Amino acid sequence: MPSPEGDAPGMDEKIHAGRHRDPRKYGQDNYDVLAHCLECYGTAVSGQRALARAFTGPRNTAETGRVHSVSMTAPTALKIRHANEADLEAVNRIYNREIEHGTATWDLEPWTIERRRVWWAEHSDPLQPVIVAEDGAGVVGFAYLTLMSRKAGWRFTREDTIYIDERGRGQGVGAALLGALIEEARAIGVRLVVASITSTNEVSIRLHRRFGFEMVGTLRNAGYKFGEWMDTTYMQVDLGVTRGELRVASSE
Asked: What confidence category does residue 107 fall into, taking pLDDT thresholds of 50, 70 and 90?
């Protein structure tokens, strides 16, 4: 699910020029603002999102026959929203704990808050959204979509990443975040969502299967952490296309 952060490309070219506003500053669900930011791509996100929701089955002959509509119901008292800069301390704390104690990430050294702010700047465009799960005690998990490559031909593909605080595990936080992340992918015109998951992470693999992801391959002995060689399993879900050549997810 997570990819090595140093390899995660940002899309800082042509996206948030000075005239465009960041929708995260204007409320959780303000897709009118998001549409404003994406006018140069020819399709309003609010309309694209509604169109995507209208389809409950396969929308073209190339996509998989798996689940295309997922529940957005979050556990009681859990709120899913777009992240903002004030969340970075919590995001960094959750990630650093996984670095030190888990294998969901193959990072070996904890991130400084300065490095997290650089990461945040790279995700400041609406085509690489970051969301958080929040309960009564604060942020309990975060998730985001990342470009697979800066090459233009990859513009309709994203990789998903999800991290859950220890206190939120087993509470439905992961499902709530992944469901919301798929909604985000649909809203910006993404066709393919990919997950790279440490192969021993059976919980994450089962979660992705629930949302229609299929296994497409395994890289053997790709990582080394805590004195052990590790495999990564690649999964994908094809969301299909809604009409012609989509432009929302493009940086062009």
From this structure: very high
